[in-house]
Write a structure and sequence with these properties.
Length: 306
């Protein structure tokens, strides 16, 4: 299969590219390297340094490549940045997605897989673990752009017959996650612990998240190449872990001995976010395989350079 991955130089996108290449697919990447890194690029994939906001260039690349499937991971992925600069986030994420989908029509792309967000889509959900049927209630410009993306997919499916699978990720962690961003507590804590600085826990550390290992997420993207049609699917573990507990597990994996620092509670941080994942099992035949303990140990080894 010929697949074009946007954001393929990023944290999650690069693992998806690796899994597609390993499965024998012909892969091309579009990335503007805003947060993505050249060293994440798979050498067997063709690389276009291009920006999704440039509709002419994106159309040219799609017409040249004529991929069967587009996997759309590229986005401004920081909630904090989106609050500081909403215009740029809507341009990058919403208009970027429109440019891509419009180019898909011209290039006759058959299927689009989209990186959505389970953590942001449900806001402060009434029921936790949360199913896909909960109403979209994003609380940030970033979350709104993810809802935009899903509505756009439904429009292009209805109007042009482009099949879609929107994968609503929980909190993804693993090798290659940027520790210098505003999100990604595992990478941030690991980086601090290994450089002998003290990690800061915001609030009392009781906030609960659903942590899913990046290779499990890549596997869901592999299955979504052929399974499920016009579906929105949670990709998480169904299990919640507090920030305090993540700190404890990492402390053990690293052999760190210090206590954390505590900072003020961050406005907008949800108290609990856990995804219900039975639909992923039913529609994709997917289940997470990596326990948090194993995933954190593997991530620690990567941060050690092993
Ligand atoms: N990390 C998580 O826990 C998480 C959770 C839910 C959803 N997501 C979504 O998954 C996707 C991947 O996230 P990530 O954590 O790997 O982030 P990332 O920042 O590592 O990857 C995003 C990639 O997209 C590229 N990019 C951004 N804007 C672009 C543009 N206009 N044109 C071309 N390339 C562009 C960046 O350079 C980067 O390589 C994003 O869509 C994100 O919103 C991530």
């Amino acid at each position: 299969m010929k697949i074009l991955v946007t954001g393929g130089a990023g944290f999650i996108g690069s693992h998806i590219v690796d899994s597609y290449v390993k499965a024998g697919h012909d892969v091309a990447i579009i990335d503007n390297l805003a947060t993505g890194k050249k060293e994440n690029l798979n050498s067997k994939a063709k690389f276009y340094k291009a920006d999704l906001t440039n509709k002419i260039e994106i159309q040219k690349i799609l017409l040249k490549e004529k991929p069967d499937v587009i996997n759309h991971q590229a986005a401004e992925s920081s909630v904090v940045v989106s609050v500081k600069n909403p215009q740029q986030t809507f341009l990058n994420n919403t208009i970027g997605t429109v440019n891509l989908l419009q180019a898909c029509v011209d290039a006759k792309v058959k299927r689009v897989i989209f990186a959505s967000s389970g953590g942001c889509m449900y806001g402060d959900a009434k029921t936790v673990p949360t199913t896909e049927t909960a109403p979209p209630s994003p609380l940030s410009p970033y979350g709104i752009t993810k809802a935009d993306g899903e509505f756009l997919l439904a429009f292009y499916a209805k109007e042009y017959g482009i099949l879609y699978v929107a994968l609503r990720y929980a909190n993804v962690y693993g090798p290659r996650q940027d520790p210098h961003g505003e999100a990604g507590v595992v990478a941030i804590f690991l980086n601090k612990m290994l450089s002998k600085e003290k990690p800061v826990i915001f609030g009392d550390g009781s906030c609960v998240r659903d942590y899913v290992f990046v290779e499990d997420v890549a596997k869901a993207n592999l299955l979504a190449l052929t399974k499920a049609k016009n579906e929105t699917i949670n990709i998480g573990t169904g299990k919640g872990t507090s920030v305090k507990e993540v700190f404890k597990l990492l402390k053990k994996a690293v052999g760190y001995t210090e206590a954390p620092l505590y900072g003020p509670h961050r406005t907008g941080d949800l108290q609990r976010s856990i995804l219900q994942i039975s639909k992923a099992k039913k529609t994709l035949g997917w289940e997470p395989k990596t326990s948090l303990k194993d995933g954190l140990e593997r991530t620690t080894r990567w941060f050690h350079g092993e």
